[in-house]
UniProtKB/TrEMBL annotation:
<protein>
    <submittedName>
        <fullName>Uncharacterized protein</fullName>
    </submittedName>
</protein>
<feature type="compositionally biased region" description="Polar residues">
    <location>
        <begin position="1"/>
        <end position="22"/>
    </location>
</feature>
<feature type="region of interest" description="Disordered">
    <location>
        <begin position="1"/>
        <end position="30"/>
    </location>
</feature>
Amino acid sequence: MRCTINSNSPRSQGPHSLSPPDQSLARRSPGRWILRERAAKTYRLELKDLDVIDPIERRVNPHGPAPIRKYNEQDVAALSRRLFAAANRVGDTLAVRSGASIVRSRALSTYPGLTRAQLDTIPPISVEPNPYSPNSAPMRYYNVRDIEALRVDMQKLKYEIQG
């Protein structure tokens, strides 16, 4: 695997500053940084939500297979505000059925870049009790068009946040 050196990192030399060529890095700002797991916990996000924004540094983790990723804390806070603001606008309203529909779990597997928090930002077309497991969460059905539009919006948000 070909690697490139992250010249923005204070450790611009050595194996800890390598990042894969397909992973773009955000511009480093003078603000604070936050590690991926801490960002998810602090801002009540899923780890997949953080994939919308680029890290400011990515390096090899000497203690495990997952790389260490640092994010600009301002970018993480902005993402959190947008996701939760959109979720609060949706509330308990239902969308009007328009074309094909998809159940929440199928949407998450069909569109792997989307997370539960992101799906919470759009209204479902129906919410029904789970016939397979009455004690679990209800089944939510969405318009496929809404899911595809959300995916496009998340891509736009990614580019907006990156500046």
